[in-house]
Amino acid sequence: MSVATIENALVVGSGSIARRHIRNLREQFPKASVACVSASGRAIDATEVGASEVLPDIATAISRKPEVAIVASPAPYHLRNADELLTSNVPVLIEKPLCASLTELNSVDLSRHTAGIGVAYNLRFMPAANIVKSLLDKGTVGTISSAFAEVGQYLPDWRPDSDYRMGVSARKELGGGALLELSHELDYLNWFFGPFSRTLGVVRSTGHLDIDVEDNVDALLQQRDGLVVHVHLDFLQRQPCRRFKAVGEQGTILWDLMANEVTLLRSNGSAEKVYADPTYNRNQMYIDQMNTFVDFIQGEAEFESSLNSALGVMKLVESIKTSSHQSAWADLMESVS
């Protein structure tokens, strides 16, 4: 648990993830004031989002001198909101993805700022994810020849009390679509294996959900040394599925994110469950992420989910889009030039 303290925090946005951050900040730092600014400018009540107060705009919030800000607005607003805060030397944790398109970086360059920046790819803070990372780093099953990552869940079931077609995930103008919304998988694959050199992707909308963004993505990610990773992302599976598999010379690593367990399949046919915690509270990874970021901006910890790592995810996103459009392999660097 973080030993750092804060007295004044800001959350930009009022959707479900913004409210989670507000709730966690108030629970972790009960003496702190946690203000909220609506990303859309709509009038909201503090009790509606659980904040200490609602402020009219970011400029007003900056005048209160927040020690940390979380940008949880829709993806097309992330860079603009973060830039305004960072210009005033307010450290910012940006909700994933970093932006809706790398072209947005032509007008906003966050790298020029000196205040702390992080991007909220929270799966990195799951104990199971760190066990998988350790197994791969130690070469537990030998050299990995191929890997597979899959995530799928029926979009209307995400928030059954609201119209899914009105949510950020379903709307192109708000940065929706399976590729950006489910980019956690791309982040942890970069984290596990390092950068990829090219992709082959198929990005499509089946039309089953009546939305203007892709609901289905299949991609191959390839490294220069030959490793190939298969990725599948969708908004369609009626039974939620989230899993990772790495095939090595001496065995296979299986990570079932829904069951929250990690299994080693050995060459002798045995299966060893190296981690299992079915009672794990998934909000804990958000708390651990936030506490680590607060420690980071106070000089007490590293925060590996950085601006550079998030740029790596966006390069994969752009490359997969380019490949799908051209029906051919796309080099990562060429895809973002």
In short:
This protein is α/β, with parallel strands linked by helices and 337 residues long. Helix content is 29%, strand content 25%. Helix 1 crosses helix 8 (283-297).
Structure description:
The chain has 337 residues and is of the alpha/beta class. The protein folds into two domains: 8-120, NAD(P)-binding Rossmann-like Domain (Rossmann fold, 3-Layer(aba) Sandwich), CATH 3.40.50; 124-281 and 314-335, Dihydrodipicolinate Reductase, domain 2. The chain is 29% helix and 25% strand. The protein has helices at 16-28, 46-49, 58-63, 78-87, 127-137, 178-181, 184-193, 283-297, 307-326, 332-335; strands at residues 8-12, 33-37, 53-55, 68-71, 92-95, 117-120, 144-152, 198-204, 216-222, 228-234, 241-248, 251-256, 261-266, 271-276, 330-331. The strands form two sheets. A nine-stranded mixed beta sheet has the order 14-13-12-11-7-10-9-8-15. A six-stranded parallel beta sheet has the order 3-2-1-4-5-6, with helices on both faces. Strand 11 and strand 12 form a beta hairpin. The longest helix has 20 residues, at 307-326. It is globular and about 60 Å long.
Total number of domains: 2
Shape: globular
Per CATH, the architecture of the largest domain is 2-Layer Sandwich
Strand content: 15-25%
Mean pLDDT over the residues: 94
Name of the CATH superfamily of the largest domain: Dihydrodipicolinate Reductase, domain 2
Extended strand count: 15
The H-and-E topology, N to C, reads as EHEHEHEHEEHEHHEEEEEEEHHEH
Integer-rounded radius of gyration: 20 Å
Helix content: 25-40%
End-to-end C-alpha gap: 42 Å
* Top CATH class of the largest domain: Alpha Beta
